[in-house]
C-alpha cells in the first residue's frame, strides 16, 4: 500500500476516535488546569482556570465563575456576560473581597505587636500600615489566604457549593465548570468542600488540589499583579499539599461544614450520585 494511503488511514482513525469520545474529552483547547472533579464518576463536573478564551469549546456548560469583575476586565477579552450568542450559562459568584480581606488580616492574623508596630510606623509613612497588612498575608502564604477567604466569604462559599450540588442532583445534564483565574485557590476551596461533602477521604482531597501545581506554569504574571495591588503574589505560587491540609484542619477545627447549614437531603443525594455513577 502506498505511504500516502497509510497516512490517510491514520488521519481517518484519529478523527473517528475523536468523534467517539465525549465532548469534553474532544476539547483540545480546554482552559488551563482543566480536569474532572470526580474522575472515577460519570458526573460531568470540571474545574479550571479562566475560560475566557475557550467559550466556543464550552458549549452547553454551566459555568460557576468565582472571579471578581475587575479580573475579567484585566483579561483583555470580551466579557463573559456579553457572549450572548454562545450557548453557555455563566454564573458570576465572586469569593474574594479586598476590604473584607484586609480587615480580617488586621483583626485575626495580626498580633498586638503587629498592630502597634503598624500604627507607630504609619506616623512616618502613609504606606506603612498597608505594607504591614501585605507583609502579614505574604508571610502566611496560601494557608493564611484560604483561612481569610473562609472567614470573610463563608456565606458566598457555602451558597455556591449548595448551588453546584443542586445542579448536580437536578435533571439538568449540562456539564458544570468551576473556575477562577488559575483554578487552584478559590476553585480549590470550593472543590475541597464538594469532595468532603461527597465523602472523599482527606488524602485524596489534598492530592487532587496539589495536581494543579503540575499543570500550571506560574511566574510571569506575578510582577504585573504586584505593581497593581502592592502584594507579592509569588508568595502564593503553586498548590502545595500542606496548604490544603491546613485548610481542611481549619474547616474541621472550626466546625465550618456544620456552620454552612447545607441541606442534608441534597447533600446525601449528591453523595449517592458521586459514589454510584
What is the number of domains? Answer: 2
CATH architecture of the largest domain: Alpha-Beta Complex
- Helix- and strand-based class? alpha/beta
Spatial separation of the terminal alpha carbons:
45 Å
Rg, alpha carbons: 21 Å
CATH-assigned homologous superfamily of the largest domain: Protein tyrosine phosphatase superfamily
Task: Based on Cα principal axes, name the global outline.
Answer: globular
> What's the SSE pattern?
HHEEEHEHHHHEHHHHHH
Tell me the name of the CATH class of the largest domain. Answer: Alpha Beta
Q: How would you sum up the major sheet?
A: 5 strands, mixed
CATH topology of the largest domain: Protein-Tyrosine Phosphatase, Chain A
- Beta-strand residue percentage: 5-15%
Chain-wise SSE layout:
Layout: H1 3-19, H2 23-26, E1 35-36, E2 45-48, E3 62-65, H3 69-74, E4 89-92, H4 98-109, H5 112-121, H6 128-152, H7 154-169, E5 176-179, H8 186-197, H9 202-215, H10 222-229, H11 241-253, H12 256-260, H13 264-276
Parallel strand pairs: 2-5, 3-4, 3-5
Antiparallel strand pairs: 1-2
